[in-house]
Design a protein that fits this description.
By secondary structure, chain C is mainly alpha-helical. Chain C has 25 helices and 3 strands. Helix content of chain C is 68%, strand content 2%. Chain D is mainly alpha-helical. Chain D contains 13 helices and no strands. Classes of the chains: A mainly alpha, B alpha+beta, C mainly alpha, D mainly alpha.
Chain lengths: 292, 537, 480, 314
């Protein structure tokens, strides 16, 4: 199941021959499937279409294993895990999008600046980016949380900001490579306004893949960061469910062999992150197919 | 002066008996073996003066001695001082030091004996403004410390006080070993590499943060039995328990309550209960007009099913309390019963308090037509699973009677700022721990409501104030008890706190370690008599 | 739905409501008995006695009787612990300057001294107390109890006069000293003290129903004297006699409960009933009766350990009053020493007639120490408790003993009856006290007091000792 | 040539200096905005009166205004003195040294593992000769980077110690022999679990295929000449160097968590503790070091890329 995962920026005859369409469709189906599920679940939770009240406690059945009443069992105060996992999507969906868009918007912008006018901007942008990279992410969040409060939007906004460099760097590198390409140089030489060159060739033809990947990666990362934070105690706070704080709570029963509690949300995270990645790949495939 | 001499003689006798227990370790127990104990978090400093956390406090017990110390029976017994006498006006204490106590033989210390200079010096260092130490407040009572000769000194108190002797149990440091002999700051190498006179001496502080201590061969009570004691700091309580269960540690000073069952099921370990004098509570902020109403506070307590929380979150491991003392303390008023769980009564009280209208969302409405809601501030801590549970259940119970509780989790420092300085909270959940004196004066006296004071709920009641002062000043213990029990009754009715429960801490120690006695919270005071049988070493 | 769940848990978890959860009939009662909820177990049976099938009746009757025996043993342990603490408390009071003027202190100190067999001092103190400015009824008490002390000192002649007192207290003292019960019904008694004492006497005279009628609603936790001249300083004093009376009442109840079975019953229950009946009577000092039932018991097919115990008790009855000789004891010791129950009985006797007989005492010593080590599987809590109390009584090192006892304690619910036997808890509390760990001791008593009446005097005195002895500087630290 | 190098050095130098300034300033300001007071480290504040507390703050120099304090710190820093940790009183430089090399060890080995794994996977995929291996590794990579790192850590401990008793849970003084083996666990966990493996793999692969797509490579392939030289240059060195630079912060971030789980006495824990204590000298020291590392990463990257194809230089 390997070839389907890849994203060729320039699909070539040679590659098409070696491609295994079946696997690609599988990946596409899985990716899009997961994504749709997540979106659907998110909508359901927003519309309050839930098996249980996410805050309904059942101290009689704490840390229970799956049963008819609770399809995925219950948590440490007997709340329904399935419900909380569903509601948990809210903790990263919009905030995650926020974080991603922040990092992409500024990332792309800075990336392009640095990529096209290295002489003018590279230093400045580079400094800015490295400044962001140098501040220890988690400490930054700890202080922000202390300063304001443990709010997921806030946290993921910080995450988004600290992710700007990654996006920018990728784009910059990409552009650096492209600039050496004859046709761009030609285009610029022909006196096409850089803006068009940027928009058409770089962003549209070559950059969109990267942006897309960054977006999907960013989603996944948002979730994982929030989980790490929850482990340190600074993630989304009770009673609001997030997959992160659910895993973190489950950990306290882990060594007693009660793996279920933390594994369920962990699995949810895995599937979603995986889903996003594959979705990204799949979309890219289409793009490339059409773009070439 | 006659009675004074008697005191001296008594002390002398005790000294004999003390050395009789341990002198030369002729107790027939084997030497050798090492004890690795796990702490949650690492000590900031290792000296007895600047250290300001429990980890450090426990550690210094192993490395240092005081003028006097406490016996397992909690009597004041001679330590560095072999005898003392008290002036008739109970202000001047004259101590005669043992002449056979040597500082740990380390670079700089040679093998010098502990002299009056060291004791006087230590007191001066503690009281020196440039020295930043939590002890300062406690030693304001000392007017002057004066050396009489090599081994005798005299400490003059500003005024005679109860248990003066007990309070003079500060740990003595070799002032000559300090970078600057008249004060101690944390950039002094001493704080990380201290020289003491105690049963164990610091051998190294590894980069892992482990503190390795070795038996002090020339300890004046005789070499302790254990060869080495090693402190291992951990950053994750679950992992700490695993370390104990899988032979990476022989002792855990505070067992995570959720692991107690598992550890005691394991035949290799003994669990030792300690520090029973603490309790958990929900503090109500009187600055909030709604919480200022007694009915509301009482209603909150009536609505909270404390027994159920205790049973399902702590598997019944503890006892509900009815007032500001722990049931293990002498001041607890046994005639006062905890307020029962009774939502109906709670609703009545709220109606009496004038909350008659109910909003669409089922919450009671205030006169301004807003839902009756309070913010419960909870410190964010990596290991606060049970606190979270309590907070959630509490929110749930109050929902039943139409009060809305908003949980707000704050980073620890921010939490302290909110609670102790800005008083920006409605309800707060925390724990109090007391020593044997069960002294609650700072919790409810109206003079203690300022920034960083303990009466953060802003409780103020002249009657209570008067009683508190009287209880604190009288020397008659029965009077103290009566007053405290009246306080208990009053406060139980006033409910400035919703008093929750008292739990017991446990230290888990591997059975190979024998003859273990623990000080209530310093733990290691008697560690010099612990031993490990030859076969287990 | 939240509510329902929470409610449900409440039922399941709070001991008070345990009954609602337990099975009906004998089974349920046995469950409650195992959890040491004796009163509830009895209530459970009585409430549905009619519903219990014939075949279960003997077992049920036995359960009731047995539960009283356990209760009596519990209160005996408590009484001993209580007298030790009570005396210590009064000594602390005496030591404090502020209490110089309190006339009650010497009186009650005297009363407690009798309980710990310091009769010489007691006699002296009570003599003085009788002259001191006390209310008349307490002067009378002083005189009476002094007489009791004298009697214990073997100076019966001097005691005789004072012991003729006709008050309930007087009659109770005679019951104690000579075992005679004189329940001539005087005017109806109101004071709870009198009710208790009379109750005990009526019981001895075999008038159980009247006794129970008298005892209904008696509160064991009130003080006998409350000195509150200064409202800011309240002193409470408790007469140890009430503890004695209450213990006797428990034994009496056991007797009443077991007798029908021991007389009319058959099979295994009969034997058991006979043994425990004998034991109860033995503790009530009704030796003649005790002997008959014990003989019957050891005749029947008892478990080896109870049989050994029975034989030992019989022997003890035989040499009652005089110290037995070593040759008498040697064989008896040899063929009973294997049984823990018997050994613990020996330990009890050790404080009586057997005390002086060597080399026997020295033999008991080591046997007692390794008693539990010897037992193969986890010994029952009651046994551990008795063992601990026995060792404590012979003055073993409390620290070591505490460690040994903790081995057998369920820490996760360290003070809960459902997990730890009441006797074990008393033993732990007493040992902690000896080891000066007052908070631990008080906490344990705090939990016990939720189930058992009559602990308050002990708690009050213990608190007093703690208050007087604590030497802390006074600090409060907050934590999460 | 020499002149160019000097110029480059000068440029980098100034950039680095400016970066240090910005980073520390940002951290310092943020730190002081956040509530909380290091005084609590020293004394039991509840037992002191406000003036007494002020005295303590004065003693610690906390009563001076922000710019002044930063200025003082900066002045010392320039002389190479990072001050003393408010918590332990040790020189911050010492603290950094004691914990820093451990974190570098952890992060470094983890990083290497990540890149190794990624490189192998990417190569296999790109060349497509061993589809089974390729797909297996890719899938593994994706799964591992989809799981929370501390959960993986717990799982590792659970399996290694609790379940199969194969590894001791502990290093340092008094640890059972053979504990060096335990060193591997956190490295593996951080190396494969830090959430970047799949991304790195993908990036590498993209590049490789990009390169494979290039005309000159195709012709080379057609000719049947060795691709390795080209691949190696454009396919590995270039992306690897830039990835290395980009991923350092992530790994350092992950280290905080992993160090907590595995009780690893590294800079991550130091940082966290310092942040919790508001121990600003230490925290500033840490950020300084972090930025240094980041900078180093970039310089190395640029150096490499210039070396690979000089035309980038101008």
């Amino acid at each position: 199941m390997s070839r389907f995962l890849e994203l060729a920026l320039e699909p070539s005859a040679w590659q098409r021959v070696r491609s295994w369409p079946l696997h690609r469709t599988v990946a596409t189906v899985f990716g899009t499937g997961m994504a749709t599920v997540v979106v659907a679940v998110y909508l359901a939770s927003v519309l309050k279409i839930l098996p249980h009240d996410p805050d309904a406690m059942d101290l009689g059945a704490v840390n229970a294993l799956p049963s008819a009443a609770h399809l995925l069992g219950t948590d440490f105060v007997g709340r329904d895990l399935l419900t909380r996992i569903m509601v948990g999507t809210q903790a990263f969906f919009l905030p995650g999008l926020l974080s991603v868009s922040v990092s992409l918007l500024f990332g792309t912008f800075l990336g392009i600046l640095a990529g096209f006018w290295p002489v003018r901007f590279d230093t400045l942008v580079g400094l800015l980016l490295q400044l962001l990279e140098s501040l220890p992410k988690l400490v930054l969040i700890l202080l922000v949380v202390a300063l304001f409060r443990a709010d997921i939007y806030l946290i993921l906004l910080v995450v988004g900001i600290t992710n700007i460099p990654a996006a920018a760097e990728l784009l910059r590198a990409r552009i650096a490579v492209l600039r050496r390409k004859s046709y761009i140089e030609a285009a610029i030489a022909l006196g096409l306004p850089p803006s068009r060159v940027i928009l058409k060739h770089v962003l549209w033809l070559h950059g969109r893949g990267l942006v897309l990947i960054q977006a999907t990666i960013g989603m996944g990362e948002a979730i994982l960061i929030e989980t790490s934070l929850s482990y340190l105690g600074f993630g989304v706070q009770e009673p609001t469910p997030s997959w992160g704080n659910m895993v973190a709570l489950g950990k306290d029963y882990f060594f007693r062999g009660e793996l279920w509690l933390s594994t369920v949300p962990a699995a949810a995270i895995l599937l979603t992150v995986l889903g996003f990645h594959l979705l990204g790949d799949a979309l890219l495939e289409r793009l490339e197919a059409s773009g070439a | 002066m006659k009675c004074a001499m008697v005191a001296g003689v008594v002390a002398g006798v005790l000294a004999l008996s003390a050395s009789g227990i341990a002198g030369g370790r002729d107790d027939g127990f084997p030497d050798g073996g090492k004890l690795v104990y796990g702490e949650y978090g690492r000590p900031a400093t290792l000296d007895p003066i600047t250290t300001n956390d429990m980890v450090g406090l426990r550690l210094t017990e192993l490395l240092f001695n005081g003028l006097v110390s406490f016996s397992p029976k909690n009597e004041v017994v001679p330590d560095l001082a072999e005898k003392w006498s008290v002036s008739p006006d109970n202000r001047v204490y004259t101590f005669t030091l043992r002449s056979d106590v040597k500082w740990h033989s380390k670079a700089g210390a040679g093998d010098r004996t502990v002299t009056a200079d060291d004791v006087v010096g230590t007191l001066d260092v503690i009281r020196q403004p440039k020295t930043l130490t939590p002890l300062k407040a406690a030693y304001e009572l000392v007017a002057e410390a004066r050396k009489l000769d090599g081994q005798t000194l005299e400490i003059t108190l500003k005024r005679p006080i109860v248990n003066a002797l007990g309070r003079l149990s500060f740990k003595v440091v070799p002032t000559f070993a300090l970078k600057n002999p008249d004060f101690l700051s944390r950039d002094d190498p001493f704080v990380q590499n201290p020289v003491g006179s105690g049963p164990f001496q610091l051998s190294q502080l590894t980069d892992e943060g482990d503190v390795v201590m070795e038996a002090n061969p020339s300890y004046y009570k005789g070499r302790p039995h254990l060869d080495r004691v090693i402190l291992k700091p951990f950053a994750d309580k679950n992992v700490l328990t695993q370390a104990l269960l899988f032979n990476s540690a022989d002792m855990v000073v505070e067992v995570n309550s959720r692991d107690i069952a598992q550890i005691q099921g394991d035949k290799r370990f003994n669990l030792y209960p300690y520090n029973a004098l603490s309790y958990a509570f929900l503090g109500h902020n009187y600055r909030n007009p709604h919480l200022a109403k007694k009915e509301v506070r009482q209603a909150i307590t009536f609505a909270t099913n404390r027994q159920e929380m205790l049973d399902s979150f702590y598997s019944g491991r503890g006892a509900l309390i009815s007032g500001p003392f722990a049931p293990g303390s002498w001041a607890y008023n046994l005639d006062v019963k905890p307020i029962p769980f009774n939502p109906a009564r709670a609703k009545e009280l709220l109606t009496q308090a004038g909350y008659t209208k109910t909003g669409s969302d089922g919450y009671l409405l205030t006169d301004e037509g807003k839902p009756l809601q309070f913010t419960l501030k909870i410190p964010i801590e990596k290991e606060n699973e049970t606190v979270k549970r309590v907070a959630l259940a509490f929110q749930n119970y109050l929902k039943q009677v139409g009060i809305k509780i908003n949980l707000e989790f704050r980073e620890w420092q921010a939490w302290k700022q909110d609670v102790f300085v800005d008083h920006d909270f409605d309800i707060v959940i925390a724990n109090w721990a007391f020593d044997d004196s069960a002294d609650i004066s700072t919790l409810f006296h109206s003079g203690e409501t300022g920034a960083w004071r303990n009466n953060f709920v802003g409780y103020s009641n002249p009657e209570i104030d008067g009683m508190i002062v009287e209880a604190k000043t009288t020397l008659d213990r029965e009077k103290q008890r009566t007053i405290n029990q009246r306080l208990h009754a009053l406060l139980s009715d006033e409910q400035p706190y919703t008093f929750l429960w008292t739990l017991t801490n446990y230290a888990a120690i591997h059975k190979k370690v024998r003859h273990v006695e623990l000080h209530p919270f310093k733990l290691f005071t008697f560690a010099d008599t612990w031993y490990i049988a030859k076969k287990d070493q | 739905m939240k509510k329902r769940h929470l409610g449900f848990v409440l039922l399941a978890l709070s001991p008070g409501a345990a009954q609602a959860a337990v099975k009906p009939g004998l089974e349920g009662a046995q469950e409650l008995f195992r959890q040491s909820h004796w009163e509830e177990a009895r209530g459970h049976l009585r409430s549905q006695w009619g519903a219990i099938p014939e075949k279960d009746r003997p077992a049920a009757t036995f359960l009731i009787g047995r539960s009283y025996v356990r209760e009596a043993e519990f209160y005996r342990a408590l009484r001993r612990f209580g007298s030790e603490v009570g005396l210590a408390y009064l000594e602390e009071l005496e030591a404090a300057k502020a209490n110089r003027s309190v006339v009650w202190i010497p009186l009650f100190k005297g009363l407690y001294q009798i309980e710990v067999d310091r009769n010489v001092e007691a006699e002296r103190l009570l003599l003085a107390a009788a002259q001191s400015p006390l209310p008349p009824e307490w002067k009378a008490t002083a005189r009476l109890r002094r007489a009791l002390a004298l009697q214990r000192l073997g100076r019966a002649s001097e005691a005789a006069a004072a012991l003729q007192d006709q008050s309930p207290e007087g009659r109770f003292c005679r019951l104690l000293s000579s075992g005679m019960a004189e329940p001539q019904s005087g005017p109806p008694r109101e004071g709870r003290k009198d009710k208790l004492l009379l109750g005990a006497i009526l019981y001895r005279a075999g008038r159980a129903t009247e006794a129970e009628a008298l005892l209904s609603g008696v509160n064991l936790d009130l003080p006998d004297v409350e000195e509150n001249a200064d409202p800011k300083k309240v002193l409470r004093f408790h007469d140890p006699l009430l503890g004695i009376a209450w213990e006797r009442i428990c034994w009496e109840r056991a007797v009443v409960g077991l007798k029908p079975l021991a007389v009319g019953g058959a099979g295994i229950e009969k034997g058991l009933a006979a043994y425990y009946l004998g034991l109860s009577l033995f503790n009530l000092g009704a030796l003649g009766e005790a002997a008959t039932f014990l003989k019957e018991a050891s005749g029947s097919s008892l478990s080896p350990e109870l049989d050994a115990a029975a034989r030992l008790l019989l022997a003890a009855l035989a040499w009652n009053g005089r110290s037995p000789t070593a040759p008498e004891l040697a064989p008896l010791w040899e063929n009973t020493r294997a049984e823990p129950e018997a050994v613990l009985l020996w330990a009890e006797l050790k404080h009586g007639d057997v005390s002086k007989v060597e080399p026997f005492v020295s033999k008991l010593e080591p046997r007692l120490r390794d008693l539990l080590a010897a037992s193969p599987e986890r010994p029952p809590g009651s046994l551990v408790g008795k063992w601990g109390l026995a060792r404590l009584r012979q003055g073993d090192d409390p620290a070591a003993l505490l460690a040994a006892l903790s081995e057998h304690r369920d820490k996760s619910n360290k003070n809960k009856l459902e997990w730890n036997d009441p006797l074990l808890l008393v033993a732990l509390a007493a040992t902690s006290y000896r080891d000066h760990e007052y908070p631990q001791s008080l906490e344990t008593l705090f939990e016990l007091a939720k189930t058992f009446p009559g602990l308050r005097p002990l708690q009050w005195n213990l608190q007093g000792i703690y208050a007087a002895r604590q030497r802390a500087g006074g600090e409060a630290r907050i934590s999460q | 040539m020499l002149k160019r190098i000097r110029g480059a050095l000068l440029r980098e130098g100034t950039r680095t200096a400016v970066l240090f300034l910005l980073v520390t300033m940002a951290m310092f300001v943020l730190l002081n905005l956040a509530p909380g007071d290091p005084v609590a480290l020293y004394v039991n504040v509840q037992s002191l009166s406000p003036p007494e507390i002020e005295a303590v703050r004065h003693e610690l120099g906390l009563d001076r205004s922000l710019p002044v304090r930063y200025g003082v710190w900066l002045g010392r820093m320039i002389q190479g003195d990072l001050g003393h940790s408010l918590r332990s009183g040790r020189p911050v430089t010492l603290e950094l040294w004691r914990t820093g090399w451990r974190t570098l060890l952890l992060a470094g080995s983890a990083m290497t593992l990540t890149l190794l794994f990624a490189a192998v996977t990417a190569y296999l995929v790109a060349m497509g000769q061993h589809p089974v291996w390729a797909s297996g590794l890719t899938a593994l990579g994706y799964v591992l980077s989809g799981l929370p790192v501390f959960w993986l850590g717990y799982l590792a401990i659970y399996l290694a110690t609790t379940r199969f008793h194969v590894l001791p849970l502990m290093m340092g003084a008094g640890a059972p022999p053979g504990n060096w083996a335990f060193f591997l666990v956190p490295v593996v966990v951080l190396g494969l679990g830090n959430g970047t493996v799949s991304e790195v793999t993908r990036h590498l692969r993209t590049h490789l295929q990009g390169v494979l797509g290039e005309d000159y490579i195709r012709t080379a392939r057609a000719k049947g000449a060795s691709l390795w030289r080209h691949l190696y240059k454009d396919g590995f060195v270039m992306p690897l160097s830039s990835l290395l630079a980009n991923k350092i912060p992530y790994v350092l971030g992950g280290a905080i968590v992993v160090e907590q789980v595995f009780n690893w006495p590294g800079m991550g824990r130091l940082t966290w503790q310092a942040a919790a204590d508001r121990d600003y000298p230490t925290l500033l020291g840490v950020t300084l070091l972090a930025s240094l590392i980041v900078r180093a990463g970039h310089i190395v990257k640029e150096a490499v890329q210039v070396a690979v194809n000089p035309q980038l230089a101008d």
